[in-house]
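retry 2 of 3: previous attempt timed out while embedding adenosine-5'-triphosphate. Reduced batch size to 1 and resubmitted. Inputs unchanged:
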Amino acid sequence: MAKLKLENINKIYPNGFQAVYDFNLEINEGEFIVLVGPSGCGKSTTLRMIAGLEDISSGNFFANNRLANSLTPKERGVAMVFQSYALYPHLSVYENLAFGLNLQALDEDLIEEKVFHIAGVLGLSEYLDRKPRELSGGQRQRVAVGRAIIRKADVFLMDEPLSNLDAKQRVTMRSEIIDLHRKVGSTTVYVTHDQVEAMTMADRIVVLKDGYIQAVGTPEELYFKPVNAFVAGFIGEPPMNFIDSILESNVVKFTKANVMLNLLDEFPILKEHSEILFGFRPEAITIGHLPGEKMLYLEAVVELTELLGDTANIYANIGDHNIILKVEPYDIPKIGSRCKFSVPYESIYLFDKITGRTLNL
Ligand code: ATP
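retry 2 succeeded.
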């Protein structure tokens, strides 16, 4: 078990490019942390610095309260699973799983016991004699995960381990990794660009953009109380609707529609913040006029509808603002119709357009 601390970590690559800026995070023992963000935001670089595969340009990295900047990956007691799961093609699944243990010169019986155990946990028992080429992508990925966790590392580092799997396999492996984490309890840092993986797997999520931490929090905190427009737009699918608005004389005016809203009772901090983003999540709405004082009513013209099975997405316009609404499949309005919908005040988010910061209390 390990506790990790990253303190004012910066990474400047030899070509002068700074990939990570002032990264601060304390990771508790046994915690499952997910680093998430768009391509190039510095997730892998951060993970590789934790692993000891990449130098830390400045700042301190502590493992169990001990400065660990200059420890080798082996000395840090980490096990890594990469995006490309390089299995040894000429070795069987059994031999691939046993590889690291053989290097440790463990007793044959003990190795066999461990391999059988891990293979059982990961549903690989019947494939132990096969070569990697005789396995499906998902099975190969499980061998790669098994090879990493068989060593009982203090820390697991996973860099997009599910990226080569199809959608169904991803869902299965997601719950297998969560289950494994529950059983093994090792501190885990997991990198993905997929916000659904982050939301479903993490104890806490770290959202990164352009090398900067945007937010750290539980999935619930990031979903319900996003600190800025980037986090609000990144977490949730379809993304939050943002409507460019002007705040004038304490009234929110949509810039490209004839809509004015007086929200002051709910947002007492609003002053003369001229340019703002008015946000609400596609799934926070209900079609029609719901009664209630704390409701806001809006109307949009339906452009396109998309039935997904259990839900449907409605692409619509309020004036010249494009929005998406997520509705029940039996609630789909007709294309071209005017669709009235209700948004509870508590589901409204306002952001400063310039800084992106939340204006919600
Ligand atoms: P992805 O999701 O695409 O893997 P990421 O968030 O993991 O992205 P990193 O791989 O950490 O991003 O890269 C962060 C930034 O650092 C990128 O702009 C990348 O081009 C740059 N970078 C990565 N490795 C190097 C290197 N060796 N030298 C210079 N720049 C690098």
